[in-house]
From TrEMBL:
Binds 1 FMN per subunit. FMN binds at A67, G68, F69, D70, K71, T91, N149, N182, K223, T251, G273, G302, Y323, T324. It is found in: Cell membrane; Membrane. Catalyzes the conversion of dihydroorotate to orotate with quinone as electron acceptor. The lineage of its organism: Bacteria, Pseudomonadati, Bacteroidota, Flavobacteriia, Flavobacteriales. This is Dihydroorotate dehydrogenase (quinone). It is a peripheral membrane protein. Signal peptide: none annotated. Belongs to the dihydroorotate dehydrogenase family. Type 2 subfamily. Its main location: membrane.
């Protein structure tokens, strides 16, 4: 139904506008008594065999929603009804920011891909916290784990980036289950320079110190770009070992435009979707093999089928996340992956 009727209709309109329209629709229909229960019956698979224990957390199933879809924590409860085992909000920054000028989101239909140059558009971490701390969405009452993806404001120079990440970390600490440090988006000027060994080690050590100062600690993960060289990936393995962070998310969007067919393939921004499938899996396998499985990996990038998900898990990922595949394939994809895992 989604691919035959809903997606063709949605794809007639501007991607960013239809994204916000879809959010409004999902929120409204979930207010209809009994509707969320119907959605859950269609898509949610409850089975103990799907549970994963990582970072001291219990994930109901290993299929999550990647950051960027629910940036401002506006719809995580409703989205959990589609069967996700966890949802990552953000990327959040200390201060609200508009992001880059529109138009900044592009479908590449021939490639089953998306290019975005959003630029960390969000309402700021304080606004998101107000939603997260509402009694109806507290950590105890949620049916899904929430990750907090954090970044820096565009106007913050890299030499002060640590301060922005600390602000977001402390603001979100009581309201998310784990953290993701985003230094790999290609859409904030100079952000990817923070992936270099020295600044990244410093940033992660500071966040680990903040974590240690709390009464209890939250898992901290690092999200990396797919465009890193083997030498840089080996540096990532060393950094994870030296800072003792809890894991890696591989990967973010790519700046590569190899073998694309769509007319708008030259748009500036990060590319996600099918063209990223192989590269993200290569990165997962490299990190897993070269580290001797020393840390957990969440695999994301180009998962459009159950086979794509299984390939990433077999390559060394412990969990997977969807974004562009969710847009192209619909919520049925989550169910297909979980069913395949039960049959595997």
């Amino acid at each position: 139904m989604y691919k035959r009727f809903i997606r063709p209709l949605f794809f007639l309109f501007d991607p960013e506008k239809i994204h916000h329209f879809t959010f409004k629709c999902i929120r409204l229909i979930n207010k209809i008594p009994g509707f969320s229960s119907i959605i859950k019956q269609l898509y949610v698979i409850e089975d103990k065999r799907l549970e994963r224990q990582l970072f001291g957390l219990t994930f109901k199933n290993p299929v999550g929603l990647a950051a960027g879809f629910d940036k401002d924590a506006k719809l995580f409860n409703e989205l959990s009804s589609f069967g996700f085992g966890f949802i990552e909000i953000g990327t959040l920054t200390p201060k609200p920011q508009e992001g880059n000028p529109k138009k900044r989101l592009f479908r590449l239909k021939a490639d089953q891909a998306i290019i975005n140059r959003m630029g960390f558009n969000n309402g700021g971490v304080v606004e998101a916290v107000e939603r997260l701390k509402h009694p109806s969405t507290s950590l105890r009452s949620r049916g899904v784990l929430i990750g907090g993806n954090i970044g820096k404001n565009k106007v913050t120079p890299n030499e002060h980036a640590v301060d922005d990440y600390k602000i977001c970390f402390n603001a979100l600490f009581d309201y998310v289950d784990y953290f993701v440090v985003n230094v790999s988006s290609p859409n904030t000027p100079n952000l990817r320079a923070l992936q270099d060994k020295e600044p990244l080690t410093k940033l992660l050590k500071v966040l680990k110190e903040e974590n240690a100062s709390k009464n209890y600690q939250k898992p901290i993960l690092l999200k990396i770009a797919p465009d890193l060289t083997k030498e840089q990936l080996l540096d990532i393995i060393d950094i994870v070992a030296s800072t003792k962070i809890d894991g890696v998310i591989a990967t973010n969007t790519t700046i590569s435009r190899k073998d694309l067919q769509s007319e708008n393939k030259s748009e500036v921004g990060g590319l996600s979707g099918k063209p990223l499938t192989s590269r993200s899996t290569e990165v997962i396998r490299f990190l897993s093999e070269q580290s001797n499985k020393a840390f957990p990996i969440i695999g994301v990038g180009g998962i459009h089928t159950k086979e794509d998900a299984l390939e990433k898990l077999n390559a060394g990922a412990d969990l997977v996340q969807l974004y562009t595949g969710f847009i192209y394939e619909g919520p049925q994809l989550i169910k297909r992956i979980n069913k395949a895992l039960l049959q595997d």
